[in-house]
Design brief:
five-stranded antiparallel beta sheet, Creatine Amidinohydrolase, Chain A, domain 1, globular, Creatine Amidinohydrolase, 10 helices, alpha+beta, six-stranded mixed beta sheet, homodimer
Chain lengths: 392, 392
């Protein structure tokens, strides 16, 4: 049984088809697991083999194509009828003789789509170069168009039903950061703290179970605070070290990321407290200002202006769009809050603002996960925006 | 500081270069995160942006290229000297104007490799079609060769140091399955059991912290036992339902997968117990027989022969090679135990045998994670090979 009502999926498919028409795409091949989930409800850890969903202008229901053993999963989790589910034999998997795209081409021919203009997600992980080559070779009469992030751009404005799930993810995010706060202490092994954090992620709340995040808990302690994107070791935390955390609450694959910095002592380095002050005030000023109708780049410019009196420099983007996602990234790959992104913010868009700063000897991270309302924004969770001090 | 000694990495690189020479590849571009880790020690959750390691026949050290904010991570976790680490600016990330492969091409030109024969991993996730197109466009004098799984095939024979880590992963696997056994009970929410399982995965043992698995805990209960690859819900387990589990112990990204079937009662359906008996005996006979010198397909034939007296049919492969890995798959994408795979098994190869059976109304899973010795095999863990009964 699919997560949302069938009407919700049909409305998403309708929006996708409108974008397809505008771009002259008659058949869209979707490979990104979040896009498969978004359009059909399909939810399985099967994205390590080739699979796709085909959306055709001349067919109401999309077509799911995947590995034989995963077809029952598609029947269980998607809204699709059995006539829309096609399975390839196991000897297509990681074979050097045959490729799953040969089977996909067979299905495309079966529906007489072999001369169509076919959109593919050309810069998505999960759609390899070889997939493209085999598809093109198998369908010589088709023309191929880059439809990268086409469905991602449909995802960018959330439905009320989606925002409800993101709100639950926000509740879980609070539990997750509280678990970090409780367990990250001098003498505790990093792995043991990570295990309590992930436990909180999966367990969720008493009424809503959690889900696996698209990014595992990121935890940078001591020397590692000069960089993002690392995971835990089995060393114990030390007194007077900082710990950067990039976590998320997740519900049904919808994310509410939460990032904070814990200091295991009472007296952090001056550079860290100075940076924290600038970043926290800059983030607050940006949030006071953000509203529908402004562009993504204007939000970043506001942030830059707010910290311009200081020495803090942030070269990387300020944030990005969030929603439903699967590993390896909870970022939607649509809106980036940075110069050049002229996307106009609209109600029901959801953003993760994460002004992370990594110097060569110390770092600081804090964030806000929000969605736009008719007049301003609403936070996905309420959690103190400050350094967390754990001194014993 | 890298995980293994520099000599271990240099030996891996030497083996890679030998294979490159044999295939006429002068420069190898490696994109798979496990291959980056294997060749350099690099360990960061940064594979959701484009990154690579370049191995050139005419340079001893590989070259790491990634996003600016991840370069400190490369300095912290790899054995590479600073002269081998190159970082691209943040405005290359998910841009429609510029692509990280333009920067990679700049580095290739800087080292005068632009006319070389360049090997790329054409069917790996993490190397997209667009990456190939942009690289080819930027380097018109280069010739491109498919080097898919080239490094994976170097990884297939493990060093003693690697087997030691896999042994620790095996110890963790036992803790992980014990956590499942303790917490999967009628009335417990699936998400709460999953949270205890993942906690055991990350916590590891008292002497060795665990790591995140390349595949999250897979847990199929009740109706979902007709399929693999699903995750938990927030429903409570029911009395008299079966639960299929695909889990793993992980240490420093080295995996020891463990799969079992729990029955929440005393009287499973006859089809399940019949299937279990056939599969368990078939697996035992296969393991009695397996030894270095036989082919991967012969192992599968032995298994098929061992169950031929029964009605059990397994169409999918019996197993595959395992070792170091990152999401989305702990399978190495080299050896498959199935007809047509003529790889001769050698000492220090590691295999996951997983004869999973999914009927339309019930399934059964059990497994063995082993490595080949000089004369036979050694199991990565010792865990009862039987249905687990949890009846209260």
């Amino acid at each position: 049984m699919s997560l949302f009502k069938k009407e919700e999926y049909l409305s998403r498919i309708e929006k996708t088809k409108t974008l397809m028409s505008e771009r002259g795409i008659e058949l869209l091949m979707v490979s990104h697991p979040a896009n498969l989930n978004y359009l059909t409800g399909y939810d399985g850890w099967s994205f390590y083999v080739h699979q796709c969903v085909l959306v055709a202008l001349d067919r109401e229901e999309p077509v799911w194509i995947g590995r034989g053993m995963d077809a029952n999963g598609a029947r269980l989790t998607s809204f699709l009828s059995n006539e829309s589910i096609f399975e390839y034999a196991d000897n297509y998997v990681q074979s050097t003789e045959r490729h799953p795209m040969h089977f996909v081409a067979d299905i495309i021919r079966k529906f007489h789509w072999e001369k169509k203009s076919i959109g593919v997600e050309m810069d998505q992980f999960y759609f390899t170069h070889r997939s493209y080559v085999e598809l093109e070779k198998s369908l010589p009469q088709a023309s191929f168009v880059d439809a990268n992030a086409l469905v991602n751009w449909v995802r960018v404005v959330k439905s009320e039903a989606e925002l409800e799930l993101m709100g639950i993810a926000g509740q879980i995010a609070v539990n997750v950061m509280n678990a970090a706060k409780t367990h990250i202490r001098p003498g505790v092994r990093e792995c043991d703290a990570a295990s309590e954090i992930v436990k909180a992620q999966y367990a969720g709340t008493s009424t809503h179970g959690g889900d696996y995040p698209a990014i595992v808990p990121l935890m940078m302690a001591g020397e590692a605070t000069k960089t993002p994107h690392l995971t835990w070791s089995d060393k114990p935390f030390k007194k007077d070290e900082a710990v950067l955390l990039e976590l998320s609450g997740v519900y049904k694959h919808y994310h509410a990321p939460i990032a904070r910095t814990i200091y295991l002592g009472t007296n952090p380095p001056q550079l860290m407290t100075d940076t924290a002050k600038v970043v926290i005030e800059g983030l607050a000023k940006t949030l006071e200002w953000i509203k529908p109708g402004v562009t993504a780049e204007a939000v970043e410019a506001k942030w830059r202006e707010a910290i311009s009196h200081s020495k803090v420099v942030k070269e990387s983007r300020l944030g990005y769009s969030i929603g439903v996602n699967y590993p390896p990234d909870w970022g939607e790959h649509t809106i980036s809050l940075r110069p050049g992104d002229k996307t106009i913010l609209k109600p029901n868009m959801a953003l993760h603002l994460i002004p992370g700063i990594w110097y060569d000897d110390v770092g600081f991270e804090i964030d806000a996960s929000i969605y736009m309302t008719e007049t301003g924004y609403k936070a996905l969770y309420d959690y103190p925006i400050d350094i967390i001090y754990n001194d014993k």
